[in-house]
From TrEMBL:
<dbReference type="GO" id="GO:0003677">
    <property type="term" value="F:DNA binding"/>
</dbReference>
<keyword id="KW-0805">Transcription regulation</keyword>
<dbReference type="InterPro" id="IPR015300">
    <property type="entry name" value="DNA-bd_pseudobarrel_sf"/>
</dbReference>
<dbReference type="InterPro" id="IPR003340">
    <property type="entry name" value="B3_DNA-bd"/>
</dbReference>
<keyword id="KW-0238">DNA-binding</keyword>
<dbReference type="GO" id="GO:0005634">
    <property type="term" value="C:nucleus"/>
</dbReference>
<keyword id="KW-0804">Transcription</keyword>
<protein>
    <recommendedName>
        <fullName>TF-B3 domain-containing protein</fullName>
    </recommendedName>
</protein>
<feature type="domain" description="TF-B3">
    <location>
        <begin position="16"/>
        <end position="105"/>
    </location>
</feature>
<keyword id="KW-0539">Nucleus</keyword>
Length: 113
């Protein structure tokens, strides 16, 4: 977590951690039931390398939630693989030149299997 703070990213709360499956990597990310996210919220997500993505939580008729929008681009660009550990954090608000920044800010980290 130290390197994230040095990069100016201050995780506030862990929303969820998940070991990725083949279908998560090659399709859409099925979210754990307890995930701390809001359905239909468009989130600005940063990765540990400075990349920025827009994800949206969608809900199936079954009630299960999944990640949409740029999820497939993210998995391709970061070379995500099945069995990698994904951690999803809500970022803390911070002030930049007197403005509050990151109202929908999130951070995603990926640890290789």
């Amino acid at each position: 977590m130290t390197s994230l703070k040095m990069a100016g990213l201050q995780p506030k709360e862990l929303c969820f951690t998940k070991i990725l499956s083949d279908s998560d990597v090659n399709g859409c990310l099925e979210l754990p039931k307890e995930n701390g996210l809001t359905v239909d919220e468009v989130m600005v997500v940063q990765d540990g390398q400075g990349g920025e993505w827009k994800f949206k939580v969608r809900q199936r008729n079954t009630g299960r939630c999944y990640m949409a929008l740029e999820w497939s681009n993210f998995t391709t660009d970061v070379s995500a693989r099945a069995r990698d550990r994904l951690s999803f954090y809500r970022l803390a608000y911070f002030n930049l030149l007197g403005r509050k920044v990151c109202p929908n800010g999130y951070l995603v980290t990926l640890e290789r299997a």
